């Protein structure tokens, strides 16, 4: 499960990210509202932890734009002010939950888990591209009825590519989303893992699903 944390205080953002990662979530942290809005448009997050007072576009504006663009990713709003009218405005704008600052990290983590569960009730846990399926709960991948054994990193790579079906994912995007840290751009680690994954999902099939885009990256799609 991937969570976006939008918090302009670096220390607070780092604390939240560390707490969520300890629970097994993959976490991206941004400080700017405009960057956050662009991120949710291009990455299928399972939940967003969104501070109202952030750099650039404020959190309420980000939330309203998300809902206007029919993005229904669950949102937990954070605010240092905590006035009732602000909470009401946030909930009316489409937030699923609201947490005033200061807060206990344990409570925030519990609320995020609840958001993800509720979101999972609406969003199918089964990803499908062509005859390839990935159950994101059991983490079982199958193609044409054949079970595919995946390492933890291969699973995360496959999930990211399948959630991004039809969209070209650059090597740096994959590094940031699958490895959770910046990496030497000269490294071929992405190509190595894509090669391993391609061997597992495409080698025995006439129809290839994992495609290379020269000079850009990789895309998962059924090109028939």
Your description of this structure?
This protein is α/β, with parallel strands linked by helices. It has helices at 10-22, 33-42, 59-68, 84-92, 105-122, 152-163, 171-179, 189-202; strands spanning 2-6, 26-30, 47-51, 75-79, 97-100, 126-129, 132-135, 140-143, 146-148, 210-213, 217-220. Strands 2-1-3-4-5 form a 5-stranded parallel β-sheet, with helices on both faces. Strands 6-7-8-9 form a 4-stranded antiparallel β-sheet, covered by helices on one side. The protein has a two-stranded antiparallel ribbon with strand order 10-11.
What are the SSEs and their pairings?
Blueprint: E1 2-6, H1 10-22, E2 26-30, H2 33-42, E3 47-51, H3 59-68, E4 75-79, H4 84-92, E5 97-100, H5 105-122, E6 126-129, E7 132-135, E8 140-143, E9 146-148, H6 152-163, H7 171-179, H8 189-202, E10 210-213, E11 217-220
Parallel strand pairs: 1-2, 1-3, 3-4, 4-5
Antiparallel strand pairs: 6-7, 7-8, 8-9, 10-11
Helix pairs in contact: 1-5, 2-3, 6-7, 6-8
What's the short story on this structure?
This protein has 8 helices and 11 strands.
The percentage helix is 40-55%
Q: What is the spatial order of strands in the main beta sheet? A: 2-1-3-4-5
Gross morphology is elongated
Q: β content, as a range?
A: 15-25%
Structural features:
224 residues, alpha/beta, Rossmann fold, Arc Repressor Mutant, subunit A, 2 domains, five-stranded parallel beta sheet, four-stranded antiparallel beta sheet, 11 strands
């Amino acid at each position: 499960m991937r969570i976006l944390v939008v918090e302009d205080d670096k220390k607070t953002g780092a604390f939240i990210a560390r707490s969520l990662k300890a629970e097994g979530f993959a976490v991206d942290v941004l400080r700017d509202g405009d960057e956050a809005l662009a991120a949710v448009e291009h990455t299928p997050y399972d939940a967003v932890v969104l501070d109202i007072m952030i750099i650039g576009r404020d959190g309420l504006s980000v939330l309203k734009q998300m809902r206007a663009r029919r993005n229904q990713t669950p949102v937990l709003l954070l605010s240092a002010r905590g006035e009732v009218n602000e909470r009401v405005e946030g909930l009316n704008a489409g937030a699923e939950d609201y947490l005033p600052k200061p807060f206990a990290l344990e409570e925030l983590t519990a609320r995020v888990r609840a958001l993800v569960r509720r979101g999972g009730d609406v969003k199918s846990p089964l990803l499908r591209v062509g005859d390839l399926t990935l159950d994101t709960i059991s983490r079982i991948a199958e193609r044409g009825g054949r079970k595919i054994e995946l390492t933890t990193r291969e699973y995360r790579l496959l999930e990211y590519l399948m959630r991004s079906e039809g969209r070209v994912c650059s090597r740096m995007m994959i590094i940031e989303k699958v490895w959770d840290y910046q990496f030497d751009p000269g490294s071929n680690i992405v190509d190595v893992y894509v090669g391993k994954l391609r061997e597992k999902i495409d080698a025995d099939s006439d129809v290839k699903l994992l495609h290379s885009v020269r000079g850009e990256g990789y895309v998962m799609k059924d090109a028939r």
